[in-house]
Amino acid sequence: xxxxxxxxxxxxxxxxxxxxxxxxxxxxxxxxxxxxxxxxxxxxxxxxxxxxxxxxxxxxxxxxxxxxxxxxxxxxxxxxxxxxxxxxxxxxxxxxxxxxxxxxxxxxxxxxxxxxxxxxxxxxxxxxxxxxxxxxxxxxxxxxxxxxxxxxxxxxxxxxxxxxxxxxxxxxxxxxxxxxxxxxxxxxxxxxxxxxxxxxxxxxxx
Length: 206
Description:
Elements: E1 4-7, H1 13-18, E2 21-24, H2 29-32, E3 37-45, E4 48-54, H3 72-81, E5 86-91, E6 97-102, H4 120-129, E7 132-135, E8 142-147, E9 156-158, E10 163-166, E11 170-174, H5 190-200
Parallel strand pairs: 1-2
Antiparallel strand pairs: 3-4, 3-5, 5-11, 6-8, 6-10, 7-8, 9-10
């Protein structure tokens, strides 16, 4: 049996960590105020499981269609009614937000070690970005949200490094499970994102 647990209090962290589907309702106040939220369900597509975005009504949402986005309060209410696995925030070309997702690297090492510490490379980037940071829904990954733009608006993904970066056309599952000793606010980090891109996605020699 899988268990979902919903909370708006950091005091419930021990219970959130034991749940299969933890959802905290205390995301960044800045993101909460923007009507770019969706619900989501974990569904099997072919031979893979994926997180599919939905509108609170139950209709499919689209990461590139603002008409399918909702307010934070509406998606939370829909989650509480049942039928969804959580809430997410959509990055668009009309906002200033950029999300960095740290997950398992090519060697299978998660962003969050079994002892609760961060993988060394992830720890270095979290410290350098120094912005709103939360534990992912799996409990093994980390999301950092900053104010920055990607060159040409093109997202990046490195399976070898276990790092993805997007500023539009994608949604992040939001947990509100803020990583200890990180800001609760979203900080301008254009230079830091540029440095990460140069290190993780170096330009190919011509």
